[in-house]
Automatic annotation (TrEMBL):
GO process terms (BP): protein deubiquitination; spliceosomal complex assembly
The keyword Protein biosynthesis is assigned to this record: no
USP domain segment(s): 140-495
GO molecular function, one term: cysteine-type deubiquitinase activity
InterPro entries: Papain-like_cys_pep_sf, Peptidase_C19_UCH, Ub_carboxyl-term_hydrolase, USP, USP39, Znf_RING/FYVE/PHD, Znf_UBP
The protein's name: Cysteine proteinase
Length: 495
């Protein structure tokens, strides 16, 4: 390259790079052209932050550069920088790496290893935005666009499951992740949550949730509240299925003999994914039919269990804990003292002895295989959206007492009751706790999902402190606060 050509290129770059306005940049939204609404070949204007299609003559980006005197653009796919309308590619991008990192944060192995390490100085766990506002890495707010806080708490929880998070942060896994759109967009959000180079102390889940709305046929949207449990189950199933399809496709591409994706061969290695390795356990369900007979003499109904029982082994993502009904109060309407119950009492559902009576059937449950991460769903809503003994309120407000660590699950495993088997403890620690609060000060008002606020409490494993996040609001809370709220979904990691 001649000296005159180099000088000319440098002159062009220097002329326009100072026009970049980083405070206008936000790459959390769906990458579609603001004019054509196309999602193909999209460029972002680094002066105003808007998205446009193409960069060649007669493209929307080309006309935007002329009409608005905005000249610096980035291709949102390959992250190359261009000056328009000259269509000149900027080669020296060392001063623009922060923009690349904002769009697509990356982590090396040493950075991933340090995320949970206990550090001597808290300042190493913090970063700052463009306005020098300090934020805690990994503990940032998610924008509640309209009514998507039900999804925010699930996304925050999953981003703090160490093994899942580390998988999606690891560059070596990008080749697998990027073969599925949902997994790609989910992984990008995880990387942004843990980024140390944010321009703002919060991010938006808009791009991911827009795709989820499309994929779920608008069952889960940003405009309508949903049950976080339903969203969690849908998300785990679809993330898992995305990896399974990749595994089966790649194996089939190698001309190997494989089973269908829907094969009943549950031990097929290709059906194991990072999602199932983290969250999937197995449970034994034994059922006995109940025969109802009428006594011919007394007209009294008699209930007898058949001697023969059926047993099945089922996979699970979530274990539901059933709360006892609230007893009637003197005035029949108000709660004067919230009852409390131990989590171990609720877990007796899975000891293989306690029965659950259903229509025409009696069941017992016992865990055959514990996952690395246990998810408990606290069933606060009955099927008919009412609670026995408490009129007008549609949720069960019983407070659950639980340890923050050393939750021993060994008593609920298969063969745990046999005398000749020495039981070893299987400990879990709480890492995420989703709670619900009502917006109404009057508990007698008829409630629905739109009247609840969903919050997430997260463990900072590096400092053993807890943080509560409500959309954009992030604050440190004491451990005692965790036991006061109405826990709805809990995430426990094996110790």
């Amino acid at each position: 390259m001649s000296n005159s050509k180099l000088a000319n290129d440098t002159s062009i770059e220097n002329m326009y790079l100072d026009t970049i306005d980083r405070s206008s940049l936000d790459f959390d939204f769906e990458k579609i052209c603001s004019v054509s609404l196309s999602n193909i070949n999209i460029y972002a204007c680094l002066v105003c932050g808007k998205y446009y299609q193409g960069r060649t003559k007669n493209s929307h980006a080309y006309y935007h550069s002329i009409d608005n005197n905005h000249h610096v653009f980035i291709n949102l796919n390959n992250l190359k920088f261009f000056i328009l309308p000259e269509n000149y590619e900027i080669k020296n991008t060392s001063n623009l790496n922060d923009i690349k990192y904002l769009i697509n944060p990356t982590f090396d192995s040493s950075q991933i290893e340090k995320l949970n390490q206990k550090v001597p100085f808290k300042k190493t766990l913090y970063s700052h935005d463009l306005n020098h506002k300090i934020y805690k890495i990994g503990f940032i707010g998610l924008n509640n666009i309209k009514s998507n806080d039900y999804a925010n708490v699930i996304l925050q929880s999953l981003s703090h499951i160490s093994s899942l998070r580390n998988f999606f942060l690891n560059l070596n896994n990008f080749g697998t992740i990027d073969k599925n759109i949902l997994n790609t967009k989910f992984g990008l959000l995880i990387r942004k949550i843990w980024s140390k180079n944010l321009f703002k102390p919060h991010i938006s889940p808009h791009e991911l949730l827009q795709y989820i709305s499309l994929l779920s046929s608008k069952k889960f949207t940003i405009n309508q509240q949903r049950d976080p449990k339903d969203f969690l189950l849908w998300l785990l199933n679809n993330l898992h299925d995305g990896f399974v399809k990749i595994n089966h496709y790649e194996h089939d591409h190698d001309n190997s003999n494989i089973h269908s994706i829907h094969s009943s061969h549950s031990n097929n290695r290709r059906s194991h994914t990072i999602v199932s390795n983290c969250f999937q356990g197995k449970i034994i369900i034994k059922s006995q039919s109940i025969i109802v007979e009428k006594d011919s003499k007394s007209d009294i109904l008699k209930f007898e269990k058949k001697s023969q029982s059926n047993s099945s082994i089922n996979k699970f993502w979530i274990l539901t804990l059933d709360l006892p009904s609230i007893p009637l109060f003197k005035d029949g309407n108000t709660i004067k003292e919230i009852p409390q119950i131990s989590i171990y009492t609720l877990l007796n559902k899975f000891n293989g002895i306690q029965t659950q009576e259903l229509t025409g059937e009696s069941r017992t449950f016992q865990i055959k295989k514990l996952p690395l991460v246990l998810i408990f769903h606290i069933n606060r809503f009955s099927k008919d959206n009412s609670i026995k003994g408490l009129s007008g309120v549609e949720r069960n407000p019983i407070v659950i007492n639980f340890p923050l660590s050393k939750l021993d699950m060994s008593a609920y495993l298969e063969n745990s009751k046999k005398r000749n088997i020495k039981r070893k403890p299987v400990y879990y620690k709480l890492v995420a706790n989703i709670i619900l609060e009502t917006k109404s000060e009057n508990d007698n008002m008829k409630e629905n999902l739109d009247m609840f606020v969903w919050k997430i409490q997260l463990l900072d494993k590096a400092t053993n402190s807890w943080y509560e996040i409500t959309n954009l609001d992030v604050k440190e809370v004491s451990k005692e606060v965790l036991l006061l709220g109405e826990s709805y979904i809990e995430f426990w990691e094996r110790e």
